[in-house]
Amino acid sequence: MRTMGGLLLLLALGCSSSNDTTPTATPGGGNTPAGGASPIGGPAAPAASSFVAVSNGSLTLAGQPFHFAGTNNYTFLTYAADAGLRPQIDAVMASADSLGLAVIRTWAFNDGSGWNALQTAPNVYDPAVFEALDYVIDAAGRAGLKLILPLVNNWDDYGGMNQYVAWSSTASAHDDFYTDAECKAVYKQYVADVLNRVNTFNGRAYRDDPAILAWELANEPRCDSDPSGDTLTSWIAEMAAWLKSIDSQHLLSAGSEGFYGPADAGKNPWNWAAATGVDFKRQHGLAAIDLATCHLYPHGASLPATVAWLQALAADAALLGKPLILAEYGQQQPLALRNTWFQAWGDAIYADASAGGAFAGACFWILYDESYPDYDGFGVYAAHASTRAVLSDLADKLDGL
């Protein structure tokens, strides 16, 4: 989903790299000691059972099946960089808990020169904003929530891939991000620096923190210049292998919207979706990708068509042996319309999950703090009692599996 404005300004693209040579990424990074070790006297390594894992195509936690309802909130990183706004993050987490939600998906990136940017130049970071990400991860762990963390945006909000292109001396267009040597090196080093980061609140490296359910290589990666899917598939394979060489404990997703590629274009409810470079089966079939994902907004399709799409994705994810997460789903107000679509999508997910299918969970877009404006009509607030009842019911049913 493209995120909205207000205080969260779209990031400028005018910064260019000052390096004349292509940087070389190194697996060690962040604020860890040499070799990426945790600080002396730091916390003991968490038990392997505290991480969400995949077993026989399903998610597990502590050896038991794990199904969940969750939400998205993209404001956490930028808000946490302002100590006065942290209570809003705590309030959203408390609201999620009151709904029975177990997972929140939120950005682990903010690139460029925008408000509270994390990566202000290639592999140069604002320490206060990195501490903000520390706060978000630690707060989630203390609240008993799991996080899904994308590492770059396809869209220009929060800098995105176009910011990497602007930093590069050899790239000129969005899709160069996937093939340009400078872009790939900066991204790889960013991944290493984030995963090796030692949290200043709990002393634990991010790669060792069970509060993180999964990393996403990107939010909604697309490559319109190569509808075959070859370019995007190659990039996902390369970056997945890189990330897994640093962190083998956490699950990994490509961050895909889940569109079918040209070979299965008829399964999409939108005729444009197969031309985006996304290919559900090829890209989720990669060995280093643990989780299949999809995102669902009506985009003019009928409700039955979108339900059929979810069912097709679940069947194909099961064939791939990958758990499936509806990582974003949204419908604008009025509430009665939203509730109808949420109910139908939730029913399809629960029906598949309760029958032993691939669906593991779903994260709606978007749970806001009461003070945050609803820029696009997708926001869910405390006053939306009817929507919250639909969401809470799904959470209860999935948690009971």
Strand order in the sheet with the most strands: 10-9-8-5-4-13-12-11
Q: List the helices and strands in order.
A: EEEEHHEEEHEHHEHEHEHEHEH
Largest sheet: 8 strands, parallel
* Low-pLDDT regions: 5-22, 32-41
The CATH superfamily label reads: Glycosidases
What's the architecture, going by CATH? Answer: Alpha-Beta Barrel
Q: What CATH first level would be assigned?
A: Alpha Beta
How many DSSP helices?
10
Supply Rg.
20 Å
Number of strands: 13
Any idea how many domains? 1
Mean pLDDT: 92
> Approximately how much beta-strand content do the residues carry?
5-15%
| Distance linking N and C termini | 29 Å
CATH topology: TIM Barrel
Helix content: 25-40%
Structural class: alpha/beta
Form type: globular
Care to describe what's here?
The chain is α/β, with parallel strands linked by helices and 401 residues long. It has a single domain (72-399), classed as TIM Barrel (Alpha-Beta Barrel), CATH 3.20.20.80. It is 33% helix and 13% strand. The protein is built from ten helices and 13 strands. Strands 10-9-8-5-4-13-12-11 form an eight-stranded parallel sheet. Strands 1-2-3 form a three-stranded antiparallel sheet, with no helix packed on it. Helix 2 packs parallel to helix 3 (127-143) and helix 8 packs parallel to helix 9 (335-354). The longest helix has 20 residues, at 335-354. It is globular and about 50 Å long.
